[in-house]
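Deliverable D4.2, example record:
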Amino acid sequence: MKGQGEGIVENKHTEVNLTRDRLRELASLLRSALWLDMLTEAEVEGQVWGDPDFDPELQLGVEVDGGLVGALGGVVRQDRGTGTSVGYVKFVAVSPTYQRQGVGTSLLKRFEALLAARGVDTVRVSGSAPCYLWPGVDVCYTGAYCFFLKNGYTRYADAVNLRVDLATAPLDTEDDERFLASQGIVVRRMEPDDAEAVGNWIARAFGDNWRWETMASLRRSPPAVFIAIQPSAAAEERVVGFAAYAGNRRNWFGPMGTDPRVRKLGIGRTLLRLCLRDLREQGYLEAQISWAGPVPFYARTVNARMDRVFYLMHRSLKDGNT
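Output generated by the structure prediction step:
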């Protein structure tokens, strides 16, 4: 995320809302401003117009001479813990030519004003799960971090992505699959017909956000989800594990979960390796394990290394300073 400014750009500028017909232009802008992330048009389209809480009023742009020079994508979600509405900045980007001229600040203030008018008290610059581009502000985007600090945002948590070298990672699953079969557990690629049973199990065990991400992965070609099942078990106990990738970003892994009743059998290890092997066979040289939790598990299993670090930031709008 990136954007800086002192005073509004002197050139004639126009405030606009982003529409789908500007997808190519928006994706190009994001790539020019966010140099670590060469986002594809498909990724941008999914993050903006494919968001389950998509609101056209919160997709903001700035034009100069008809060209898009700044953009902010936002969303409002319900906080499951408090039941309150929270605003999220999913991205803010300014063309390098127009940075430090107030474009980013004007976009952010517009977004905050729209939130305040709706009675939203909190805005976050952090992973807007289930549909998100980053867990937070990547520390390598130093300008973005300084920009949000200047505008009253504070850091409240950190997150980390792990990097896996797919050329050297141990991704063989033959022995693990044979052992799991001896325990009555089958691992395989998820199919569309599995959506209801697997989706309901994920929602019960891990929450609706993970179900949404997994269903997004299921829509990839081939389906980017592997599951573990017990064919002989009762229907409600048949699904015992899942792992997904590419739900939000094309070579990002996650989420993954295993039924506590059958942990320590190697199900997670097997599902993880199947997903990463899929990515390798598709030609990717590396994978990102997004918003990684048990770092030692990933380091031990696939030689993952800590890579990208993100600051999660927020600001209260109750002071009325928007």
